[in-house]
Write a structure and sequence with these properties.
The structure holds two protein chains of two kinds.
Chain A: H1 2-30, H2 35-55, H3 60-72, H4 81-99, H5 112-141, H6 148-176, H7 191-212
Chain B: H1 3-28, E1 35-37, E2 40-42, H2 44-50, E3 53-58, E4 61-67, H3 68-74, E5 84-89, E6 94-98, H4 99-102, E7 106-107, E8 113-114, E9 127-132
Parallel strand pairs in B: 1-9
Antiparallel strand pairs in B: 1-2, 3-4, 4-7, 5-6, 5-9, 7-8
The chains are: A mainly alpha, B alpha+beta.
Chain lengths: ~210, ~130
C-alpha cells in the first residue's frame, strides 16, 4: 500500500514539475530570461524539497525527475527537448546525492540561515550538474560525438549562470520549508483521486499541445 | 566540521565561485563584427556574397542561410570530410561537428547555425569563429 502511495506522489510532483517546465519555461524563454536558472531555482527546488518534506522518502525525488523529464520530452513549444529532459532527470538524481546525508527530520535546517544555505547549495549543484550532464549526454544520445574540450571551455559560463539559480534557490527553500507540517494521510479518501487527477490533467494538456503544435 | 558550519561555508564558497566566474566570463567575452573561418576574417555580408543560400527544414520550421558545406569549400578548405569543425560563440560556447553534420547546415544572417537533424544544443548562436581542425 505504501509503495502505491509513494508512486502516486512521484507521479503528482513529477507531473507538476514537468508541466511547469513546459508552460512557464516557454513563457520565460520567450521573454528572454535565463529560463534554466529560474526553473531550477524556483520549480525544481520547490517540488523536490516539498515532496521530501511531505513524504520523507529518499529515492522518491529521482523518480520525480524521471517523470518530469519524460513529460518535458513532449514540449512542443521551445528549447531543446532532449537536452532539457536529460537535465531534469539529472537534477532529480543530484538532489538525492545532496540530501542523502541530511537527517530524516531535517533537524540541521532549523533556522533560516541553514535553510537559505541549503537552498543555495541545492539549486547551484542541481543547475550546473544538470547542465554538465546534458552537455555530455545530448551529443551521445543524438549520435554525435562528445568533445571534452567543448565542455571545459564553457565551464566558467555554466558556473556563472548557476549563480542566478543559487540566489533564487536560497530565497525559495525557506519559503518551501513553511510547508513542513503538511501531513498527507494515506487513508485520506481524496489522496488517490486528487494525485491521479492532477497528474492526468498535466499530461493531457502537454500532450494535447504536442499534437496541436 | 559539523553540518552547522559546513553548509553555510559551502554556500558562501558557491557564491564566490559564481561571482568570480561571472567576472571572468564578462572579461573574456569576444565582441567583434567578423567571423573567423579557417583563420581568415569575414563579415557576414562577405560570407553571403561568397556562398549560395540554402533553405533547410528544422523542428522550428524553415531556416534560410548560407550553405555551410559550400562556405567551407569557398574559404579554401581542402578535403572537407578529412576535418572536424569547431563552431564557437562569443560567450565561449562551442560545438564540434564532422563533415556529415556540417554539410547539412546553414549559417543565417543573425550569425547562428542550424542543422536539420541535430538537437538544438548544436545550433550555436552569436558565432565568432569556425575552426577547421
Amino acid at each position: 500500500m505504501k509503495k502505491i502511495y509513494l508512486l502516486a506522489g512521484i507521479l503528482l510532483f513529477g507531473s507538476l514539475w514537468g508541466f511547469s517546465e513546459v508552460l512557464i519555461g516557454s513563457t520565460l524563454h520567450d521573454a528572454g530570461l535565463p529560463t534554466g536558472a529560474i526553473m531550477t531555482g524556483i520549480f525544481a527546488i520547490s517540488f523536490l524539497v516539498l515532496s521530501r518534506l511531505i513524504y520523507r522518502q529518499p529515492g522518491m525525488q529521482f523518480g520525480i525527475g524521471l517523470v518530469a523529464g519524460g513529460l518535458r520530452l513532449f514540449n512542443p513549444f521551445v528549447g531543446c527537448h532532449l537536452c532539457s529532459a536529460i537535465a531534469i532527470m539529472a537534477e532529480g538524481a543530484i538532489f538525492e546525492i545532496i540530501w542523502y546525508k541530511l537527517s530524516p527530520d531535517f533537524s540541521e535546517l532549523k533556522n533560516v540561515i541553514m535553510q537559505t544555505s541549503m537552498g543555495i547549495i541545492s539549486a547551484y549543484f542541481l543547475y550546473i550538474g544538470g547542465y554538465i550532464v546534458t552537455q555530455i549526454l545530448t551529443p551521445i544520445a543524438s549520435g554525435a560525438n562528445f568533445y571534452l574540450e567543448n565542455l571545459i571551455v564553457f565551464l566558467p559560463n555554466i558556473f556563472s549562470s548557476g549563480l542566478i539559480a543559487a540566489v533564487i534557490g536560497g530565497a525559495i527553500l525557506p519559503v518551501t520549508f513553511l510547508a513542513k507540517k503538511i501531513d498527507i494521510s494515506v487513508k485520506d479518501r481524496l489522496y488517490y483521486p486528487t494525485t491521479l487527477g492532477i497528474s492526468l490533467l498535466c499530461w493531457f494538456i502537454v500532450i494535447g499541445n504536442w499534437f496541436l503544435a | 566540521m559539523g553540518k552547522e558550519k559546513f553548509i553555510p561555508i559551502l554556500a558562501l564558497i558557491i557564491i564566490i565561485i559564481g561571482g568570480t566566474s561571472s567576472a571572468y566570463v564578462y572579461a573574456t567575452q569576444i565582441d567583434k563584427d567578423t567571423i573567423t573561418i579557417n583563420g581568415d576574417e569575414y563579415t557576414i555580408d562577405q560570407i553571403f556574397y561568397l556562398s549560395g543560400k540554402k533553405t533547410i527544414q528544422t523542428i522550428e520550421g524553415e531556416k534560410t542561410g548560407v550553405a555551410l558545406d559550400n562556405l567551407i569549400l569557398k574559404t579554401g578548405v581542402g578535403c572537407p570530410y578529412c576535418h572536424e569543425y569547431i563552431i564557437k560563440a562569443k560567450d565561449g560556447y562551442q560545438k564540434t561537428v564532422d563533415w556529415e553534420i556540417m554539410k547539412t547546415g546553414v549559417l543565417t544572417d543573425i550569425k547562428k547555425v542550424f542543422f536539420p537533424d541535430t538537437p538544438k544544443a548544436f545550433w550555436v548562436g552569436d558565432i565568432v569563429e569556425i575552426e577547421v581542425k
